[in-house]
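Notes from the 1:1 (GR / supervisor)

We went over the backlog. Supervisor wanted to see one worked example end to end before approving the batch request, so GR pasted a single chain during the call. The sequence is below; no edits were made to it. Supervisor asked that the structure be written out right there so they could see what the output format looks like.
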Amino acid sequence: MKALVTGGGGFLGLAIVRQLLARGDEVAVLGRHRYPEVEKLGVEVFCGDIRARKYLSQSFAGFDTVFHVAAKAGIWGSYQEYATINVDGTDNVINACHVNDIPVLVHTSTPSVVFHSRDIEGGDESLPYARRYLCSYAATKAQAEAAVLAANSTRLKTCAIRPHLIWGPGDPHLVPRLLARGREGSLRRVGGGKNMVDISYVDNVAYAHILAAENLHSREAVAAGRAYFISQGEPVNLWEWINNLFQEMDIPPVTSQVSFAAAYLVGAAMEAGSYISGRREEPPMTRFVAQQLARSHWFSIERARRDLGYEPRISTAEGMEMLISWLRDQEEY
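Structure output shown during the call:
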């Protein structure tokens, strides 16, 4: 493959870049900044914004595979900003693939596109998109995924990968946020504490992306036009997993509890207060976060196993060992 990775300087994007290089593939990265860690690998970096349609059309020339990982993540902020990056930016990626006759596009999506405010236990890809979203990220990622899958054709084969709660060494999002809340003592168990969730080690997610690209390049291309849930293949109890992490990092366990109803009402009030005051920072609680902390949300990966040959290469236990080792190294400096 001669691959271009949008967002290739980010947590998941960099993992994809490293695995492509290890395979001997040619790789380049497109992102808004220069990425010294990427450049040290000898990878060319196109510095630009996916909202710049003409720039993308020029930068995509000469590649046969695009991994579209770039997105505006998080759960708080202007809908317009999420839409211009996640929806318009994805439309620009699709257009650039067409302009340059690129035959394969693998899109990084999220299970949040089907999250409908109730428990999901073993759900598969037959689940419909949610009718209502409580955060702009999920709403715009659903639009982006739908556009990518609709663009599938004999000329451009596309698919979407839906990894759930990506973690591992180098994580700048999930784990640091949990540790910060734990050290502050501000994290509360929401609901009964028995909810099961999927987690996804970053290198397993990168592996799934590459398997998807290989499939789309094959004659059968059974992945074309399809979405795939990706995880460790075995859900964990959210609060046990968090407390095990805290124990390893000498942080007191989460023992305080709040009902889902109370957390949801507090989240609604905090959201309203932020909108009224014009504050840009994310409130300590939102309705979406309350639901994510209280509900079960785990998914079957049987389609990925069957179509892509996906199996997690790094177990949850192995991944946790590597994560803890990395975190402890960071704390030494």
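Supervisor's comment: The chain is about 45% helix and 15% strand.
Batch request approved.
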